[in-house]
UniProtKB/TrEMBL annotation:
Descriptive protein name: Receptor-like serine/threonine-protein kinase
Binding site for ATP: 549
Places the protein is found: Membrane
EC number in record: 2.7.11.1
Signal peptide start-end: 1-21
């Protein structure tokens, strides 16, 4: 392409959205759409190419996505969805409220999704309407008409379209499978260093593993452009584009173009002819124009040190026959965990026998197993030992006699023994050598064992027949006993409250949870009334969970606390709240099953020794504020947590903060703002009104958050009685003194990162002081707190909180 063409393409890609999307169909404030009709569009783009509304899932006909799809082609290809991880049932509703909020609620009125605050451009005033544009972009229009208040182009799922731009930190997430719209195992990201990368993730989280594709535009990449002519390029900082996807000739007037990160980890560019249907048939389907990586290279990409690689553990990647899509396959002696999701990996068919092999001597192991050869297969990062010089026969024997060896690779007199799980598997004719797979023998040894077992069965059967009269007597006697025990077992079995089931929570039996936790073996934490254990929930995938077992309480308190936590968190759905997956209510056994938070509590994060980075702490503070704002102002019934403290803030894989432990929470009806209740909470985080016979409001959480915000800022506990300087023993008192005397450097222990961000440090300390005011009416709401933390509103100079605080110790 000539330099003039490059400049023209760049100019088209950078045109203001208002000029690119010349026409749109509008949605007025206060209108809504129900999912009652199949593929019901709420609005079409003016040219009729795109539809926005409820899309019925073909494999789950009673579930819907809020989505954008191509309206003119039979395939109805979805290019964006709001709730891919959480489809809704018939009767759900999307609404553009009179306040300008776009909200998706399920059939029970539970909020499922709304645009993330980070993607909203609040500087454009208030929302006046929504529109579906001819470009495939659904937008919320702002009153100032500077730019859009929010747009789907800024929050893509797995697809980008012509005129769409991917900015720094922008990403695409693949689907889990070809038919599932849940986030999958691959990401495309534009890093802040200027590189466009493809990487696997630590599924089911979004933690990025090593990249298997890098654009090598370090320091120069600025944004990814998809222009109207179908060219995808990385815009360099000097203004020149670097084309990364080649296109064949074809006018955008004749073809639809899209680029999708597919479920198999390949970023592909597609086109589809705009030719209308003739005689009920179309000219062709979506065709692939180009891809990253190329089909012949995907199985050879740089292996990732963490994770399974392109295919799942214990499988290997094989280039497809037509070189359009690779496949994941299992070696001999292994089979897929899920035949419908072959990227999930493979399991050993005889795992028990292989584990038991460590109790056998070398000779018996050699008689029990054999090595099956496969050419050109390797798992390059699963080595346990290298033996050299070793020929194929020696390598085979070495693996057979090693109970921990699952596979051996022999090449050029080198023998690599491999351990489980096998990762980064690939079939590549350029590798050479052989993979020797250890499998259970199916020869006479096993047959002899089976004959011996059969002989034992015949002998046992003869004995049993000889005693048949006695056994019949025992059988008849056992029938009434079985009926008796079965009846009492049913009495003990949980009868789930219908209100609990209505919240889409799974009801577990105590036996199921005992099995999930391996007999409540691994303890994660212990409190006054509950112990939390780690477990594993196996559905279509293996999910780590935290099982909270209520104990050491009276029957009335136990039931009350259990119902409170279940009913409270079961009604919530927010990314900064720990998600409740299910419960067990079986007689005296009361348990709650939560998603597992791999990085523990905020208390361990702040007070564990190493000082976390300032930027990371500030992000966590903002996330906690947004979670509390949701509880106080965005739930159908206002929820007061009543025990906000670092121990009740859990951190996910990416250190995302999530509020937990709703055992003390208090629900308020929509027409109430205050309540009377017994003292709840933890010393040091109590709001003063708990001691004053005052009505309790959501401001008690604001107070506790203010204390915790100071702990986040300073990385120290609120009360440290062993402090050498007594005036520093109570953080809330000392923090105000430091603020008043201009000694914030002392407050943060001269932390360089914090002092380099002095304006934010000063602002956050001021916010915390406002939160810990003794008079509840002086404290801001959590919405105001969130806005102040994020710099959306100015923070006034706070008054002295009160000398009353020092009496709380």
């Amino acid at each position: 392409m000539s330099s003039r063409s490059n400049l023209l393409s760049l100019f088209l890609a950078l045109l203001p959205l208002s000029s690119i999307a010349r026409t749109s169909n509008n949605i007025s404030l206060g209108t809504s759409l129900s999912s009652a009709d199949e593929n019901a569009p709420w609005v079409l783009s003016p040219n009729g190419d795109f539809a926005f509304g409820f899309y019925r899932l073909l494999d789950k006909k009673d579930l819907f996505l809020l989505a954008i799809w191509y309206a003119q082609i039979p395939q109805r290809t979805v290019i964006w969805s709001a709730n891919g991880d959480n489809p809704v049932q018939k009767g759900s509703k999307v609404e553009l409220t009179s306040d300008g909020e776009l909200v998706l609620n399920d059939h029970q009125g539970q909020e499922i999704w709304k645009p993330s605050p980070q993607a909203v451009n609040a500087s454009n005033g208030r929302v006046t309407s929504a529109a579906m544009l001819d470009t495939g972009n659904f937008v919320l229009k702002g009153s100032l008409n500077i730019s859009y208040f929010w747009q789907t182009f800024n929050e893509p799922t797995d697809t980008i379209l012509p005129t769409q731009v991917l900015e720094f930190s922008g990403k695409l997430s693949s689907r889990l499978t070809e038919s599932s719209f849940s986030n999958g195992r691959f990401q495309l990201r534009l890093l802040n260093d200027g590189n466009l990368v493809l990487n696997t993730v630590g599924f089911p989280t979004e933690r990025a593993n090593d990249a298997y594709y890098v654009s090598n535009t370090y320091g120069s990449g600025f944004r990814v452009l998809f222009n109207e002519s179908g060219y995808i390029s990385i815009l360099r900082r000097d203004g020149t584009p670097l084309n990364i996807m080649q296109t064949s000739t074809g006018s955008p007037m004749d073809f639809y173009y899209r680029a999708t990160l597919d479920f198999d980890g390949v970023f592909r560019q597609y086109r589809y002819p705009r030719t209308k249907q003739r005689n009920g048939e179309t000219a062709e389907n979506w065709s692939i124009i180009s891809s990253i990586p190329r089909p012949t290279e995907i199985c050879r990409v740089t292996p990732s040190k963490v994770g399974s690689g392109i295919c799942g553990f214990n499988s290997y990647c094989r280039v497809g026959v037509k070189e359009e899509r690779h496949t994941c396959e299992c070696p001999d002696g292994y089979s897929f965990f899920d035949p419908n999701d072959k990227y999930k990996g493979c399991k050993q068919d005889h795992a028990v026998e292989l584990r038991q092999a460590c109790d056998l001597d070398k000779q018996r192991m050699s008689n029990m197993f054999e090595m099956t050869p496969h050419s050109d297969i390797d798992w390059p990062l699963s080595d346990s030992e290298l033996l050299t010089p070793y020929d194929e026969a020696q390598c085979s024997i070495a693996c057979l006699e090693d109970c921990l060896c699952a596979v051996a690779i022999t090449r050029n007199e080198n023998c690599w023994k491999k351990k489980l799980p096998l990762s980064n598997g690939r079939m590549d004719t350029s590798l050479g050598g052989k993979a020797l797979i250890k499998v259970l023998k199916q020869d006479g040894t096993q047959a002899g064992k089976r004959k011996k077992d059969q002989g034992s069965l015949i002998l046992a059967g003869s004995f049993l027949l000889g005693c048949s009269a006695f056994l019949n007597f025992l059988f008849l006697l056992g029938i009434p006993l079985c009926i008796h025990f079965s009846y009492h077992k049913k009495l003990l079995k949980a009868q789930p409250d219908s209100s609990m089931l209505a919240m889409n929570l799974r009801s577990f039996t105590y036996m199921e949870l005992e099995e999930m936790t391996d007999g409540f073996k691994e303890e994660l934490g212990r409190g006054a009334f509950a112990t939390v254990y780690k477990g594993t929930l196996t559905t279509d995938q293996i999910i780590p969970v935290a099982v909270k077992k209520l104990e050491k309480m009276g029957i009335e308190d136990d039931e009350k606390g259990f119902k409170a936590e279940l009913n409270t968190i079961g009604r919530t759905h927010h990314k900064n709240l720990v998600r409740l997956l299910g419960f067990c209510d079986q007689g005296p056994q009361k348990l709650l099953v939560y998603e597992f938070m791999s990085n523990g509590s905020l208390a361990g994060f702040l007070f564990g020794g190493l000082r976390p980075r300032w930027e990371q702490r500030m992000r966590i503070a903002s996330e906690i504020a947004r979670g509390l704002m949701y509880l106080h102002e965005e739930c159908s019934s206002q929820i007061i947590h009543c025990d906000v403290k670092p121990q009740n803030i859990l951190l996910g894989d990416c250190f995302t903060a999530r509020i937990s432990d709703f055992g003390m929470a208090k629900l308020l009806k929509t027409d109430h703002s205050r309540t009377r209740t017994a003292i709840r909470g933890t010393r040091g985080y109590f709001a003063p009104e708990w001691f004053k016979s005052m009505m309790i409001t959501a401001k008690v959480d604001v107070y506790s958050f203010g204390v915790m915000l100071l702990e986040i800022i300073c990385c120290r506990k609120n009360i440290v009685l062993e402090q050498q300087n007594y005036e520093e023993a109570i953080l809330t008192v000392w923090a105000y003194d430091c603020y008043k005397n201009g000694r914030l450097d002392t407050l943060v222990d001269h932390e360089e990162e914090a002092l380099n961000d002095a304006r934010k440090l000063n602002r956050l300390v001021m916010v915390a002081i406002w939160c810990i005011q003794e008079e509840p009416s002086l404290r801001p709401s959590m919405k105001k707190v969130t806005e102040m933390i994020e710099g959306a509103v100015e923070v006034a100079v706070p008054p002295d909180p009160s000398s009353f605080i020092s009496k709380l110790v």
